[in-house]
Design goal:
- By secondary structure, the chain is an alpha/beta fold.
- The protein folds into two domains: 380 residues, Alpha-Beta Barrel (TIM Barrel), CATH 3.20.20.80; 57 residues, Oligo-1,6-glucosidase, domain 2 (Alpha-Beta Complex).
- It has 14 helices and 21 strands.
- Helix 7 links the parallel strand 10 and strand 11.
- Helix 5 packs parallel to helix 6 and helix 11 packs parallel to helix 14.
- Bound molecules: beta-D-glucopyranose.
- The site of beta-D-glucopyranose has 10 residues, from loops.
């Protein structure tokens, strides 16, 4: 019998949404304040969801909004299943998730599994119950060294400065470990109750309808057996990426395998993204093996200077590291822990990611715009930090008395000035706190904030906001843009990057001077003015152009 001929089945063209997603980070304290107490809240976020839909992002990642004494702006969680009253209620969270979904936006929430707040029920009971108690075993309690136990159990330092141990005030005088502030005791992930609790917390939020998790300090959960001394290793830098007995231990991967199984039980491609500071892109890739988490932040990219060679190397390394594990590369320029990139690029490179100098603001903005078009042209998923679409600089002159970052108070000898990127964002040209809310703003906003507001930039085709909107719209109409695993480098003058991808070319001039190059097709979008002259064009300094071929 002649077989019935049919067209061959279409190849599986489905790409999971997260493989090329653009994810927008909302820092709830500083996004929008609906109840007028000077602090952003979930209702504020909900009211601005249409703005995020119009911006063209795929998902929103919310920094923590859980019940917390706010010793570290909510990264000290007292109850993982409750909303802090300053941010709203569980009902508000539910409404936010529903509204976001109705607008086609996904919601990713922050999960903080490395440590709890010292006001968490378990830790309060652990303190009360004393040495050897069941609750103490869920954290790292140890007797001190020295004749009377007056010295910390080992020589680890807190990421925020000072010893990583605090002595309890009880008669037993035991010490407990906190890689961050003393109000953030580290969980003991060897204890089964800790693992069980977090599996249950995952399910709680998945049942609430969230689309994924950003896993805080994903590299820190497991500590080397015996908590060995580091033996005078260099003073840690904030979230440093040196090899340490408390970071990037192989034991963390079993935890993520168990989480992946839970995520896979839920419909709708739920994901988890690792905040994992590791010594190399290859070590980061281990977190996103097919049976672990879905994405990991690319901090090597975030830390790269504005330099063609350095960026090309990071891009190549990142893509190469992800290939064997099949996870998408990710790209990020700013977040709530580092100086905004408009300010980093305004300063000489090499100063790091914690700066207090405004630098040359016009230069920083020009480079930031060019950097964004470069980032959004790369294959994989990209992260945007609230306010970068307005070209906001860091606020480098906050007076000491308004600062709240715990690292500012503990980080002697370190910079630790994360408040500068956390100043509430401006929505309107005038008005109380530039449209952030009716009750002022928990960190003071600079006097020129109104000029950078959404209202000031909307509809102005030369504005940074409109550049982001156009770039994200192009990404949507050219689906090939975020997809794939490689870029094809093209010949380019020194200091210029040029690469092709699927009918598309991106050219980036990382030098200060204009260069002449052959025209690559039609200009799709440019971060600055481009002058075409026959078969050549002039690419100004610190400018990116997207071409369609
Ligand atoms: C978060 C920081 C926080 C720290 C401790 C980080 O990775 O991004 O904001 O201070 O974890 O939770």
């Amino acid at each position: 019998m002649t077989p019935h001929l049919t067209a061959s089945a279409p190849a599986d063209t489905h790409t999971a949404w997260w493989q090329d997603a653009v994810i927008y980070q909302v820092y709830p304290r500083s996004f929008a304040d609906a109840d007028g107490d000077g602090m952003g809240d979930l209702e504020g976020v909900r009211s601005r969801l249409p703005y995020l839909r119009d911006l063209g992002v795929d998902a929103v990642w919310l920094s923590p909004f859980y019940a917390s004494p706010q010793a570290d702006a909510g990264y000290d969680v007292a109850d993982y299943r409750a909303i802090d009253p300053m941010f709203g209620t569980l009902h508000d969270a539910d409404a936010l998730i529903r509204d976001a979904h109705a607008l086609g936006l996904r919601i990713i929430v922050d999960l903080v599994p490395n440590h709890s707040s010292d006001q968490h029920e378990w830790f309060k009971r652990a303190l009360k119950e004393g040495p050897g108690s069941a609750l103490r075993a869920r954290y790292h309690f140890r007797p001190g060294r020295g004749e009377n136990g007056e010295l910390p159990p080992n020589d680890w330092e807190s990421i925020f400065g000072g010893p990583a141990w605090t002595r309890t005030s009880g008669p037993d005088g035991e010490w407990y470990l906190h890689l961050f502030a003393p109000e953030q005791p580290d969980f003991n992930w060897e204890h089964p109750a800790v693992a069980d609790e977090f599996r249950s917390i995952l399910r709680f939020w998945l049942d609430m309808g969230v689309d994924g998790f950003r896993v805080d300090v994903a590299h820190g959960l497991v500590k080397a057996a015996g908590l060995p001394d580091i033996g005078g290793a260099d003073q840690l830098k904030l979230l440093g990426n040196d090899v340490m007995p408390f970071f990037d231990q192989d034991g963390v991967h079993e935890i993520y395998r168990s989480w992946r199984r839970i995520l896979a039980e839920y419909p709708g491609e739920r994901i988890a993204v690792a905040e994992a500071w590791t010594p190399s892109a290859d070590r980061t890739a281990l977190y996103v093996r097919p049976d672990e988490l879905h994405q990991a932040f690319n901090f090597q990219y975030l830390g790269a200077p504005w330099d063609a060679e350095a960026l090309r190397e990071v891009i190549d390394d990142s893509l190469a590291a992800m290939l064997p594990v099949g996870a998408p590369a990710t790209w990020v320029l700013s977040n709530h822990d580092v100086t905004r990139h408009a300010t980093r690029f305004a300063n000489p490179s090499g100063l790091g990611t914690q700066l207090r100098t405004p630098g040359d603001r016009a230069l920083g903005l020009r480079r930031a715009r060019a950097a964004t078009l470069l980032m959004l042209a790369l294959p994989g998923s990209a992260y945007i930090y609230q306010g970068e679409e307005l070209g906001l600089p860091d606020v480098t002159d906050l007076p000491d008395e308004v600062r709240q970052d715990p690292s500012f108070f503990r980080a002697e000898g370190q910079d630790g000035f994360r408040d500068g990127c956390r100043v509430p964002i401006p929505w309107t040209v005038d008005g109380s706190s530039y449209g952030f809310g009716s009750g002022g703003s928990w960190l003071p906003q600079p006097a020129d904030w109104g000029k950078l507001s959404v209202e000031a930039q909307e509809g102005d085709s030369s504005s940074t906001l409109e550049l982001y909107r156009s770039a994200l719209a192009v990404r949507r109409t050219h689906p090939g843009l975020g997809r794939g695993t490689a870029v094809q480098w093209l010949e380019a003058p020194e200091g210029v990057l040029a690469f092709a991808r699927d009918g598309f070319v991106c050219t980036v001039n990382l030098t200060a001077d204009a260069v002449r190059m052959p025209v690559r097709g039609d200009v799709l979008l440019a971060s600055g003015e481009v002058v075409r002259d026959g078969s050549e064009f002039e690419l100004p300094g610190d400018t990116t152009v997207w071409w369609t071929m």
